[in-house]
Amino acid sequence: MSTAVSQTWYMTQRQLMVFVRQPAYLLITLIQPVVWLFLFGSLFKKVVELGGFGTTSYLDYLVPGVVVMSALSSNMWAGMTTLDEIQRGTLDRFLTTPVSRAALMNGNVVNNGVVTALQSVVIVLLGLLGGADYPGGLGGVAVLVVASVLLGTVFGALSNALGMLVRERESIIGINTFLLLPLTFLSSAFMAPSQMPGWMRHIADFNPLDWAMVAGRSAMSEHPDWGDVFGRGGGLLALAVVSVWLSIRTFRSYQRSV
User: Fold this and answer.
1) 51, 79, 213, 258: which could join 159 in a potential S-S bond, CB 3.0 to 4.6 Å?
2) Running DSSP on this structure, what letter comes out for residue 55?
């Protein structure tokens, strides 16, 4: 077990070096969240007057949504990194070494988790500078970051599995583009559930994106509903475990094909 963990960390460090050598990447990935925070936050700030948001500031409500949406949008492209490794022949060269096959897949996922956590903290700080209030304190923020990392793990692992199966950039781009907006708008990212149409509210109950938002928002509120936090968080954890397992299984299928 310790060997698999150390090998996974080695593969993670390899991915993180790319991030460290390109610090501008962090700024680029934060442009869209900043637009969501301050453009959407200003445009829809009076929507809280409709009620059901649990706060008088729309920015307070929006920050957890933007954190989770950022985790989703960045991790959905993990499969592109896997495809690059395949096309450059790097992955095949690793197959000739004794490195754990799970480490080869999970290194990418752990790397994305580290980057997602960093992005989440930066977005929370930007919201704080913009005037957002977090009654739940550091504990609530920590729950939000963990929820975003779990969600990112789910979609990062699934994206890796997709890359193993289709092995085409166009397919990943098409599927991600198709899923991103429906997953976002069929959730409580921008609108309180009580203000959503009934059918959308019921779909949101099964949307992992919404699970992360509910867990984060509840933990960051003045009076957290820990049933929501642990219920949604447990669902995300279970889904993350299944997604990682599926990713490893598809890798073994790829290994047999080379």
Assistant:
1) 79
2) S
